[in-house]
Amino acid sequence: MAEMNLMKVKVESTGAEGVSVTLRGGKALIVPVEAGGTKAGDELLLGMRPEHLKVASDGPFKGQAALAERLGSLTIFHVETAPDVTLVVQAKGGDATPLHTPIALDIAPSACHLFRPQGPALRPLGTA
Fold first, then answer.
1. Phi, psi (rounded to 5 degrees) for 11
2. Radius of gyration of the chain (CA)
3. What is the pTM of this model?
4. With DSSP H G I counted as helix, E B as strand and the rest as coil, what are the percentages for the chain, rounded to 5?
5. Which pLDDT tens digit goes with each residue over 1-39?
6. Virtual CA dihedral for 92, 4, 113, 91, nearest 10 degrees?
7. CA 35 – CA 37 distance, rounded (Å)
8. Rounded Cα–Cα distance for residues 55 and 89 (Å)
């Protein structure tokens, strides 16, 4: 299993629905976690497991598939979303996405994690 993808993000706002972070490209994503003292402008790490990212017709992450490991029942894509950010995505084995063409990725906000720069994760909403 591939390691979790980590990406630097900035906190846009916090509220009852969770913590809204700004992604590269300007899109916002509301992660359903407790703010735990974080505030607008704070820098966090957004964590996403490769099996939770999905190749989609549209999504908050845009880039190109730089590498594809076609392993029969699954395909592992390495998607460059910025010069210094590559996301690893686990797709179905039959995914024929061509390399070096535009690709969009989507993820359910509930499958995301937010970490403080020092390491601890923000607690998911509704957990004690």
1. -70, 125
2. 15
3. 0.90
4. 0, 55, 45
5. 568 999 999 999 999 999 999 998 788 999 999 998 999
6. -10
7. 5
8. 8
